[in-house]
Amino acid sequence: MNERLLLVEDDASIREVIEIGLERSGFRVTTVGDGADGLAEFRRRPYDVVLLDLMLPSMDGFDVCRLIRESSRVPIIMLTARTDTVDIVVGLELGADDYLTKPFELPELVARLRAVLRRASAAEGLALLHAGDVDVDEAGFRAVRDGQEIPLTTTEFRLLCELARHPGQVMTRERLLDLVWGYEHLGDSRLVDVAVQRLRAKLEADPTLPRMLTTVRGVGYRLERT
């Protein structure tokens, strides 16, 4: 693989274990133990993927993620000891591509990394899609309505693309986990539900009464044909 990976983690023992394991898996790893230093290092040189701890000194992972997203769509996986849905929501809304709860096994981390990197390299030759009155340009990473670009996070945009590829079809949470996140998240449907809620907030006139992106109770979600 040989991708350049930035690991921002303040626990020295965890940092060392991850660094050794990922280098053995073919990554070129740079480690930083502080949030502000991690952001500075990211701005100093190009990286293919970022592993970002949530609780960091000087600047937390949320702020680092937000500032990275102002200038880059590099894949970001957040590492957290928290399991609260609120933290997951905030991380995804700020543009994180995935999250991993501590403690975790190295093979799972490697699988997640390979999944986000596959998705990041799949942008060439993509089609123009439509979701109701929204034009979805995959290659340009833009969703436009009436000439105005809709600000979407990376995850929200990928979710919209997958739904737009299957208009009128019910997409199960499990299927969306596979298509959008590229990895079986051990049945954790919160990723899908949170992303759908955020997408509705940006696309629907009334997110509480969705007409474009509807719920099929007990099954999943459907992008309605127009």
Proportion in β-strands: 15-25%
Strand runs, count:
12
- Please tell me the CATH architecture of the largest domain by its name: 3-Layer(aba) Sandwich
Strand adjacency order, main sheet: 2-1-3-4-5
The H/E string reads: EHEHEHEHEHEEEEHEHHEE
Computed CA radius of gyration, to the nearest angstrom: 18 Å
CATH superfamily of the largest domain: Response regulator
What would you call the shape?
elongated
Helix content: 40-55%
Which class best fits the helix and strand makeup?
Answer: alpha/beta
Give the averaged pLDDT, no decimals: 88
Question: Segments where pLDDT lies below 50 for 5+ residues?
Answer: none
State the CATH topology of the largest domain.
Rossmann fold
Domain count: the total is 2
